[in-house]
Amino acid sequence: MSRTPRAEAIQGERRRRKADTLDRIHGRKLTIPPQYRDDPEHDYYWANDEDSRIYDLTVEDDYDHVTLAKPEASEEEKVRRPVGTKATGEPMYAYLLRKPKEFVEEDRAKRLAAIDEREQGIMRSAKTDPNDDRSDDVAYVVKGNSIKHGAYTP
């Protein structure tokens, strides 16, 4: 009777996932936990603890940490997930942050207004606007109807 090598004998026991799923795990995005998904008042966001990212979002912007207990939570009470390793070898975490939806909508409206203003500046031909103080050499001059907003077809 021949003996099966141990590696072959326990290979079936070690497999917990299909082989094709092992590499896909590293490319997944973190999802918002189910208990927070239907919150009508807040927008949730995962942010990596890199450089000053968390400080910028929580102190310089309107995001707050999502905590398991009280607002003045310790690191262990903040909702976080390990996402990698920092250059120093320490573990890097992504923290779950939230921002009131009204602030998110206000910020989005400001960004879209700035984009619309740039688009209108591009589509405006030189010297058609009486308040336009640009010279012809720095203005984009439309020849005919060559620019159509939202009418791109590949």
In short:
By secondary structure, the chain is α+β, with helices and mostly antiparallel strands. Helix content is 27%, strand content 16%.
Commentary on this structure:
This protein is of the alpha+beta class and 154 residues long. A hairpin with a 5-residue loop joins β3 and β4. It has helices spanning 6-14, 34-37, 53-58, 101-123; strands at 42-48, 64-65, 80-85, 91-100. The model has no long low-confidence stretch (mean pLDDT 76). The protein is elongated, with a radius of gyration of 27 Å. The protein is built from four helices and four strands, in the order ααβαβββα. It is 27% helix and 16% strand.
Q: Could you give the distance between the termini?
A: 69 Å
Total strand segments: 4
The overall pLDDT average reads 76
* Shape designation: elongated
Which class do the helix and strand fractions yield? alpha+beta
Q: What string gives the helices and strands in order?
A: HHEHEEEH
Percent in helix: 25-40%
Q: Oligomerization state of this entry?
A: single chain
Contiguous low-pLDDT stretches (5 residues minimum) are none
How big a fraction of the residues is strand? 15-25%
